[in-house]
Batch of 3 targets.
Target 1
Amino acid sequence: MKAFVYHGPEKMSLEMVSKPIIQQPTDAIVKVTTSTICGTDKHIRHGGLPEVEPGRIIGHEFCGIVEEVGSSVTRFKPGDRVAVSCVTQCMECFYCRRGIYSQCENGSWIFGYMIDGCQADYVRVPYADSGMHLIPNDLEDEDVLFVGDILSTGYFGAESGKIQPGDTIAVFGSGPVGMCAMATARLWGPSRIVAVDIDDSRLEFALKHGWADVGLNPNKVDVVQELRDMTDGRGADVTIEANGFEPTFKGAINSVRPSGTVSIIGVFEKPQIVEMNKLWIKNITIRMGLLNANRIPELIKLIRAGKINMRPLITHTLPLTKVAEAYDIFEERRDNAIKVVLKADA
């Protein structure tokens, strides 16, 4: 089968490799119909996650058709259309029993990281009964494609913020994850969602689709002061960091009001400084982590009901055979690229 394989920093190629097989009775083999390139894949491409071994097939956000199931899989059968969680959940370990699926001792985020991923014709899905989700017949892959990763990540960021009705929310980073955080933050009834980014086109996109109410460019305005001006001098009730870089990290912390919450969902490659000498007296809460991906069924219901629609994030669609070009489009933001989708060959 075809697969996009990592061989070290800046060394990735489309190759012919062996088709995966059932290794455990809880496995399923899925024919990948639609996948995407994520920001984390970009980190891997440039060596930002050195624990990824050469020879690894990349990718973790996808939909497909079940081709084969192990003897212990009871919820799915060949032919089922499924969206797959990027967080593998064994449902039996110390963390899974406590609902902390992101730290599953037998899984967590492993696709395209610790095991072979989805930028391929086929993928092996461990613990298939807990990691796969049926796609309703009236929805297409593109409708639910993001539930397995970025939409669940955005939801996790909003949920971790402990948003209250009427709050002012500021999201630092208007990439795909940031926009998913904005869209899901709406579910808690904030009065105002503020998108913060240095790319005006991203701000305009978030405003156009109703995910944000206000857009602020740090290169043009003092974001901290603007947020204070909106909130009687206090600052945002909740800030969500969705980028993984120092400017957005500092912005999120500096912009939150005393006793507010900073929710961090960006992927960081470098250490960050937390100025405790200034922060200890503000009583702020800083929450962070990897998504639990425990609300995928609910997100699919919300999509089906028309309450959430992240399909506009898809700006480019290419066949798997052009995956290398797709990476370049994604990284270079050609033609204002946001999410680049890979489709199985006809």
Target 2
Amino acid sequence: NGAGKSTLLKVLSRITEPTSGRFVMNGRVSSLLEVGTGFHPELTGRENIYLNGTILGMTRKEVKQKFDEIVDFSGVEKFIDTPVKHYSSGMYVRLAFAVAAHLESEILIIDEVLAVGDAEFQKKCLGKMDSVAKEGRTVLFVSHNMGAVNSLCSNCILLNNGNIVTNNKTADVILKYYSNENSTAFFEPKTKKIGDSNIELISGWVENLDGKIQNSFNFNESFNVCMKYKILTEQLSIPVPNFHFYYTDGSYAFVSQPASEKVKEKGIYIAKCNIPKFFLNNKTYFVGLAITTYHEVGYDVNFWEQNALSFIIKDEMNYSEINRYNYHSEIPGVIRPLLNWKTEKIS
């Protein structure tokens, strides 16, 4: 956040002039930036489609050829002759994406506006962007959704404070994104309080069974993920610590929380989650630290610090108890539990 991504896209879309420097683009640009950019609120959906086509240099005939396809994709055909100022944010984004993706531009710029749409529409948009890219057109996609980035992009650029941190293959950049200065075996808030008026995060860490902080474990080792927190005021409802474990592409491995929790009094507490041996695969994992207070109706998230911790699971493949037999390649999967099996002869 605040790295300059959206500002850069506005410059490339010729909405904002650069303070200094220059950029070169080869082809027509179609952009989908934040909600409200690119459409005239007083014009209808139909009129805005033709307006955007004209801005791209397309003739009315060319836009008309694409019109039915745009409206069908957007799903707003009932309101196509209604001024877009009356559209919901979801309707607006659906039509705006349909226009940007279907009009004839060589470069498609998409900011993280897809968060407004529902899951089905997001999937539809990602599919369309993938097909646009396969047509030989350039897609510039900005997102915090690592699953979407991983599925769509072949190359990534990581920005921080307006500077390029790395420009590389997607998997390498995603790993770098998660492996920021806070993603270690120990986490402590440095400059700001993490929490609300009820509960505050003090620290988090990964430790071996002797209590030593460690960020690398063998597949046949058990270890603990820990969090220290402070309950500032006695609670009427029960705050429940929970850890979010996810893989380098942003996909969840699992979420864990205590089966029963009774702590409500003021004080400082340490919550520990034991990770058994023979459970995780030989991967890099990231942990989000959170506390959720559950009420009789609904719940409140007191804090959630994403990718606060990281650790590595190694498979040295030099012990016989991990059911590899003579298989020496990488075993697929985010987790790799050693489960109980039973084989019986029945005939």
Target 3
Amino acid sequence: MRAAVTEGPGCIRLADRPEPGPPGPGQTLLRVETVGICGSDLHLYRADLGPSHDGLLPRVQGHEFSAVVATADPAGGPAAGERVAVWPVLPCGACRPCREGRVNVCSRLRLLGVHRDGALQEHLLVDTAALVVTTGLTAEQTSLVEPVSIAVHAVARGRVAPQESVVVLGAGPIGAACALAARDAGGDVLVVDPVASRRELLASLGFPAVAPDAPGLAAAVDAHAGPEGPHVVIDTTGAPAVLGTAMDLAGHGGRVVVVGMTAASAPTSPGPLPIKELDVLGVSCCTYAEFAAAVELVRRNTAAIDALVSHVVPLTGTTDALHLLEGRAAEAVKVLVDLRAPAPSPDREDPA
């Protein structure tokens, strides 16, 4: 079968790999349809997440995807032909967070497409317990379930309540998903992003959106949240300096939710933490229940989810997909790799 293998930093090649064996009890064999490319994929591709992610390459990436059941679990589960999304979290089940029910923050956490080969291959054998059937959703919409699940968890961490003011920093796919999830929870959402086309996209989805360097940013936040400031600020940027901005924007007693990943650092004054008594909350993946809830959130917002897909490329264009995400932020929002295209006839070892 065809697979796009990240062989080393900045190097992906299309390779021919053996087909998975038949599923045993508790396993399901999937035929992959579409795979979303996200910022964490780019970090692994560039190998820039530091020592915690050393030694992970070569790897077949891909953790946000749609698939159809090719061979069902002999012990029961989704039937052959059903479309599914896959919760990509692989917890150990034994550490303290797992024992406490917080499997998404397992101290020995492993992820499909990061620590175990993922979906940028034609067939994939997975645990049946990780599947959620997405009847009625398209392959493209199903591929967005995973990023939306991160937003569901972020909003839960931020305890967003009806009529609370929420500022989302960043209007990429995760930022847009956080805006949708916060609005779904009853929050009043303002989005901040430097890219005009992304602000326009969020505005088309019904969210006021402003630039972070606009002279009127403070006034826009005041107009949105009132003089006491927003209840919740969600930072999806992965830019280390933005944490200080988030803490400055949050109102007294507010919550700052950090979603974006980075190994970089920037000076940040801890002053606002005791002065405002802020809660600063990290986000790691999501629980299975939140992943299932994300399917329903996608179902309630299909038009908005469709609008987030900016590019679709074949498996042979996987490197192009990553470069789109890295270098053309004004154009690329959610880039999908479509494995349903027929296999090319040239050399299978051509670069992907």
